[in-house]
Design brief:
Membrane topology: Multi-pass membrane protein
Shape: globular
Number of strands: 0
Number of domains: 1
Radius of gyration: 21 Å
Strand content: under 5%
Subcellular location: Membrane
Organism: Rotaria socialis
Oligomer: single chain
Largest sheet: none
Transmembrane segments: 6-26, 38-55, 75-108
Structural class: mainly alpha
Keywords: Membrane, Transmembrane, Transmembrane helix
Order of helices and strands: HHHHH
Low-confidence stretches: none
Distance between the termini: 68 Å
Length: 138
Amino acid sequence: MAASNASSFLISLLISLLLFASMQLFRSQLASSQPMTIAGGFIGSMVFVSLLTALSNFEMNTFGPTYQARVFPEVFICLFVSMICCACVHRVCVTTCLIFSLIALFYINRISASTYGSSSVPATGYATQNFSVKKKQK
């Protein structure tokens, strides 16, 4: 059974707070070597995903079930907050967090499109015409 928007908001907010707290708790270990700074960026991208989930569920609970998160401001805000969390650990964590977060956002968008499927075609303002050439019969 799926969780409601309110409970999913609370769960994902708690997960993001726990991930941020663990990043701060293990700051010296995460900044000690190159593989650990990459791991810190990955943890930061998990903060991004959980914050985006929390914010989207909060907005769906507030504005209705058809409300969708957009690139601006929701994604930018969550990405900025997760990069600030990574900046408290190490500079390289910010870069790897950005890379991992963009990859995660690509797959989130792909899963969302396959699940909820948008059948609308963007309007271009051009009329479509059939330019098939008919052969003249002799």
